[in-house]
Design brief:
elongated, mainly alpha, 66 residues
Length: 66
Amino acid sequence: MTKNMGLVDRVVRFLVAAVIAYLYISGTIGGWQALVLGIVAVVFVVTSAIGFCPAYLPFKISTCRK
């Protein structure tokens, strides 16, 4: 499993996850929207932490600098 996410990609994903967490904590989102966005946020945090996005594999995308 080689890294295929660059620093900017990882930071943007982490920031999106933080915004989703803020929206949930502030009560702006709830119900099924909170569930779906919560799952997206968890996936974003995990992929940012490991630097690998499985969705990039079929398209041979890599945002890492060579």
